[in-house]
Each structure stands twice: as C-alpha cells, then as structure tokens.
Design goal:
By secondary structure, this protein is α+β, with helices and mostly antiparallel strands. The protein folds into 2 domains: 119 residues, Impact, N-terminal domain (Ribosomal Protein S5, domain 2), CATH 3.30.230; 72 residues, Alpha-Beta Plaits (2-Layer Sandwich), CATH 3.30.70.240. It has 5 helices and 10 strands, in the order E-E-E-H-E-E-H-E-H-E-H-E-E-H-E. The strands form 2 sheets. Strands 1, 7, 8, 9 and 10 form a 5-stranded antiparallel β-sheet that branches. Strand 8 and strand 9 form a beta hairpin. Helix 2 packs parallel to helix 3. The radius of gyration is 22 Å and the shape is elongated.
Amino acid sequence: MKTIKKAIQIEINVKKSQFICSLVPTKTKAESKAVIQKFNEQYSDATHNCTAYIVSDGEGFDDDGEPGGTAGKPMINVLRKNEIHNVTAVVTRYFGGIKLGAGGLVRAYSKSVMEAIGEAEILEIKEYDIYNLIFEYSDIKTADSEVRNNNLEVINKDYTDKVSYDIVSKDNRDILKIFEKYSGKINVSFKNKQFLEK
C-alpha cells in the first residue's frame, strides 16, 4: 500500500475549463473533512470542488454539483487503482464555457488525480499493531532501554501523572513478551492498528 509524503497541487486545462487537483496526506475522516472545508473556503468562487478520500477509518467522495458519478467516483477509483491510502483529493473546477459531457467529465477528473499522483512523492506504507506502555517516571530509563534494544519505534509520548508511550515493532517482535518481565511496573496494552511508512 502507498501514500503521499506531502501535499501537492497540479493544474490541467480541458476545453477552457481549469481543473486544479490538490492531494493532501490525511489519516482520518475528520482530517479529510477539515482539508475539504479549507479548499471549499479557498476556492469559494470555483464552479465545483469535487472530493475523494481514503483514510484509516473509511472513505468517501462527493460530486459537488457535477452530474452523479462523473467526478467523485472516478477520483476515488484512481486512488484505489493506484493503492493510494491516507489521502484526500480535491479537484477544483472553473467552468470555461464548453460542456464536456459525462464521458469528458469522468476523463478530466480522473486525469487530474492521475497527474497529481504522478507528480507526488510516494511512500510505501503498511498496517502495524500499535501498543501503549504506561509507567512511572522512575521507569523511563528501563522503558527507553528496552525500546532501543528491541528496535521498537516510539510514535507518541505523553507525560501526565504517568508516562505513556505508543510503540510499534516494524519487524513484528512480540511487544507483550518483551515487557512481560516488567509486569506491574510497565503496563502494556494493544491500542489500535495504523498505516505507517515501512
């Protein structure tokens, strides 16, 4: 599976209509909706802002007033075909006065997303199990040592009344087994699954 490293924007012109495709890395529906809202405001004068997204907690698309099935669906199909995940695509159209017809619209919206993917920096990603460690401040050195020695990756740290690490093993080591000798001192639990760079 793949994603894009950073946001990218390309522009194509089809029979005087301008199509601006923006691809943005997003991980959740909430992030996608925020990105879509931002582009709706930025291009509030556009004829259409059509969207498609594939993220960890779902996917969706919207034709934004174009004839049903001619914009959002072709966009999401391009993302699926190219196995691009954790991404939101927004294609902004400024109508140039010449109608493209259903087939022309499908081709234009598909081409916009295809060209943006072609310009984007693509990363290989994989779904990993994320575990949460909770321990006292006095056990930070022990936890850090085990993380380092077992080639684990800390993807989030939280310091409140206790210390909390979200960790992942990229080479599928048994995280529960690594920390079982610290039972009672370092509590380990499965948190969720996430798509991360390989």
